[in-house]
Amino acid sequence: MLTKAKDILTHFWGHSGFRGSQEPIVEALLEGNDVLALLPTGGGKSVCYQVPTLLQEGLCIVVSPLIALMQDQVDELKRKGIKAVALMGGLNAEEVTQILDNCLYGNYKFLYVSPERLGNPVILERIKSFKVNLIAIDEAHCISQWGNDFRPSYLECSILRTLHPETPLIALTATATPKVTADIIKNLELQTTKVFKDSFARTNIALRIKRTEDKRYHLKTLLAKPSTSSIIYVRSRRLAQQLQGYLSAQGITSSFFHGGLKRHEKTSRLKDWMKNKVPVMVATNAFGMGVDKADVGMVIHYQIPDSLESYFQEVGRAGRNGAPAEAHLLFQPEDIDKAKSQFLESMPDVAFLNQVYRKLSSFFQVAFGELPEGEFGLSFETFCNQYDFPFGKTYQALKIFDQYDIINLSEMRRPVSYIQVLATKETLFSYAERYPALGKTLQTLLRTYGGLMDYETKINIGLLTKKIHLPEGVLLEQLHTMHKDAIVDFKPGNSDLAIRFLVPREDETTVGSFSKKLETLRETKTTNLKHMLQFVQQNTKCRNSVLLHYFGEAADTPCGICDVCRSRIQTPTEELTQNILERLEGKNMTSRALVIALGNENQQKVLDILAELLEDERISLNYKNEYCIED
Fold first, then answer.
1. CB 116 within 8 A of CB 153
2. What is the largest CA-CA distance in the chain?
């Protein structure tokens, strides 16, 4: 059977052999065992369940919390000629039924589902009728209350074991501490469990943390090296744009990426970065998840992450090809307090959560006791400005509602647009005769949506493009033209978030259902940030060893390449002093120029030596703030 597994690996993935624990994991699943796979970011987790699925009759149910990641996985499988489909939010009942019918009758091999879908009895009944050869729980740390991204809906995953008790189950994660690992096994009710853990050590990635008063200068210095594919992580959309603008002004080819971009913008920018047309991407933290790019040479954190789990996952996007890579974190002293403020003080309390929930319901005119159907587009900026809510704290509130299954929150894959016909029937007829192309669009609109001449109606741009057989850009241009001609009132979508209400509106009772659990959430966030800040501020222990110990792995041998290890083998003071004096004999230089010439790892020593040489009057500073040899 393993020979056939390798044949499948070669045929679909082009690999000559398995990596790390992939082969014993595949073997354990084919033998009918449950498996917990702890593999580092870039360790090839998806292959572990995709290969055994293709070897057997039936399909694999894959649970994933991330819509974008599910879609990427489905698209990748389809490109390989493998039948796969995703069941996620935003689908109507007819679309859900069609997907489930395809799984039953269409020889599909993979059904990706969001955990929230497992609370739907209709879907569960259909899944029960499927021939399921494997159940895969991706990002399994989400099932633990001590995990970095705990999602209560993940507790529903165990019902799949009830529906298919004889089917093996694999739980996969790249960020599980021993405490989280025990929680995963317990909550998923894993049986005859085989645990596989590849070393989290990425010996080719040099972890470097730099305390500096001028982060932009050091960022520019890092990117001044020969062009290499890089990711710069920031924590806000605004900073992503600002930093990209700064880099462009410095002559560094770069782009930015965040959730507020339109889908075609995301696709275009990702494509340019993947092909190295744009070597540097400034992005918010979700960027890179599920993206298979092996040649990323540098990951830079411009702001402190909220946990070692997040840091490790993002760092792991570098050096997947095994080539030497670097992971830098730049921070100023005040960033420590900013991190505490951003991640802890901005956590909303019960009173604020109640306030946001009431206003969210009012914003969409949801009556008390009502559970509205469908998905609502939300312009986050408009919502916050209308009710004078702070952006960061409000977004945290929405994320908590999402975590505790009050709402389903996601980025809009397509904004919601509205239209109303303003012209009379006679005017419409005349307009259509004069402009046949626009007339065809009008006719399709009127046939698709009833009541357009009476009230403002939500329209689906994607559906219309298919019906009229026009590119989206052309259709939007037509609608804007008809708006200018006063034929219709067209309001293009400007939503950046999608909201789906999951429970009836009950105001305080709704939030009260999970208010006690917020203390556990705060405790977890506080502990995670504490470990992250300790990691940033300590400079005596090998970075790699500290990180591995955190994830329960013994690592007493220093890596030799992190900033702490390198500081122990810096150039001796006497030799460095002589190098400085020799360089200043040739020309006057600033401290920055000297640091670049002598190595960033020697920065503090260079500055200390310059101070001593100034004090001894062996060198001086000129009007350009350059150091020069005293005459």
1. yes
2. 94
* pLDDT per residue as tens digits for the range 296-332: 999 999 999 989 988 998 998 999 888 999 999 999 9
DSSP 3-state assignment of 629?
strand
Please give the model's pTM, rounded to 2 decimal places. Answer: 0.69
CA–CA gap between residue 146 and residue 184 (Å, rounded): 10
3-state secondary structure 56-104: CCCEEEEECCCHHHHHHHHHHHHHCCCCEEEECCCCCHHHHHHHHHHHH
CB burial of residue 540 (10 Å; 0-12, 13-18, 19+): exposed
pLDDT at 110: 94
CA distance 585 to 613: 14
Render 251-274 in DSSP notation, one character per residue. Answer: T--EEEE-TTS-HHHHHHHHHHHH
Q: Name the β-bridge partners of 205.
A: 325
What is the three-state SS of 424-467?
CHHHHHHHHHHCHHHHHHHHHHHHHCCCCCCCCEEECHHHHHHH
pLDDT at 335: 92
| Residue carrying structure tokens 């920055």 | 592
pLDDT for position 105? 87
CA 502 to chain centroid: 23
Report DSSP state, residue 341: I
Count of CB atoms situated within 10 Å of the CB of 116: 19
pLDDT confidence of residue 518: 79
**Other CB atoms within 10 Å distance of the CB of residue 7:** 12
pLDDT in tens, 458-479: 887 767 877 888 776 678 788 8
Closest CA to 399 of 351, 353, 341: 353
List all residues 6 or more positions away from 150 whose beta carbon is below 8 Å from its beta carbon: 142, 143, 144, 403, 521, 524
pLDDT < 50 stretches in the chain: none
